């Protein structure tokens, strides 16, 4: 497939919706509904709940459910703040672009680098987490590590194909997956809640001591860290901003509404599952390894398990497609401004669809390599920690940059804005929440695992930082890098130069 680079590495204006994409120009093919759907698929109620349900119960008992509303409040503050930023600068690459605009090229580069590797870690973690569900569809309830790896690589390949073929097929696939998400979460949740309640609301305050332990603050903080995984990805609506109709209005709406909508579904389905567990003490004591499958089988019959596994697999796959779209757009945006190695190659767009196909293929290839490596050296658990903690760092960088920009008196809001003191208050509260959650997630708790797993989040951050220093030196260390830096600065870094 031939493609055309963006002239001069600068940001060319996207073409009107439905038009044939001129060379090197993105097309505005995402409506508000399509943008919301992409963010919805990224957050994914199924991924948000099914990936952490057993871990949450094992950590804090049924009381872990209360971590959902707490994390939602914190993330809602973040979404409001990012909504203001996305309206001010509706540009491809979201978090990276906002940081660059406010505090300059280097700060923006750090944000983009951290965000890209967080997304890649999430892609890998999601693919591997999805593999046993798909294996279960075919009757293999205990797949080997090699089989799980093969299935996970298959998920990566499908996600890549869905992103390469075009925006319309991508949108259709995402819409179909949302239907599966609603069936797996809302419909099944309602059936369990109405017809199969086994426990009372008082059990939501139950700890882990054989089903009779009381609420404990320490385990609950760990539950808040775990649930932090559930409400990430809403910012992906901003990663495709230059492909969205009226992005200064539609991106903030999609960003905020997708978070709230998914969070409500997750809390509803989570509540239904907890109240329907037939033997809660056995689950809390660790005797039941998969409480979701056990609950569905006991309450609805064993026949429901395989169809539900298929629904779950579809939800995971849709989430990976959305993650792939997001990470490729961030890589494209950084490459367009000559911020990464092989920038010319990765900033090319396909002539017909105006898609960053090269960036999609490169990020998918890197994800596959990381997946193989993580499974080979047993670092999968550390990738989960990175995928969760990395998002909160990536969120924190532009949120704190906005505080600095406000202090300098250089903040000018866009179409979507909060009024006066409310805007500042939300910004401060969002920054405080993100700082707390970064520390809470990265804290090396004693969980009985290997030391490198318990310290995994901090170790992975250090490794990515080291890789970032080396890469930054490669890009900006020589004369050519300096020229590229001057070119990138000429794009209008900073509020005053915008």
SSE order and pairing:
Layout: E1 4-5, H1 32-43, H2 45-50, H3 53-60, H4 67-88, H5 95-103, H6 105-137, H7 145-164, H8 167-195, H9 217-227, H10 236-239, H11 247-276, H12 280-284, H13 291-300, H14 305-336, H15 343-346, E2 348-349, H16 357-376, H17 380-407, H18 420-442, H19 451-454, H20 456-476, H21 479-489
Antiparallel strand pairs: 1-2
Helix pairs in contact: 1-8, 1-11, 1-14, 3-9, 4-9, 4-11, 4-17, 4-18, 5-6, 5-17, 6-7, 6-14, 6-16, 6-17, 6-20, 7-14, 7-16, 8-11, 8-14, 14-16, 17-18, 17-20
Return the structural class. mainly alpha
Global morphology: globular
Could you state the CATH homologous superfamily?
Amino acid/polyamine transporter I
- CATH third-level topology: Amino acid/polyamine transporter I
Key attributes of the depicted protein:
disordered N terminus, two-stranded antiparallel sheet, Amino acid/polyamine transporter I, globular, 498 residues, mainly alpha
Describe the structure.
By secondary structure, the protein is mostly helical. The chain has 21 helices and two strands. The longest helix has 33 residues. It has a single domain, classed as Amino acid/polyamine transporter I (Up-down Bundle), CATH 1.20.1740. Helices cover 69% and strands 1% of the residues. Helix 5 runs antiparallel to helix 6. A two-stranded antiparallel sheet has the order 1-2.
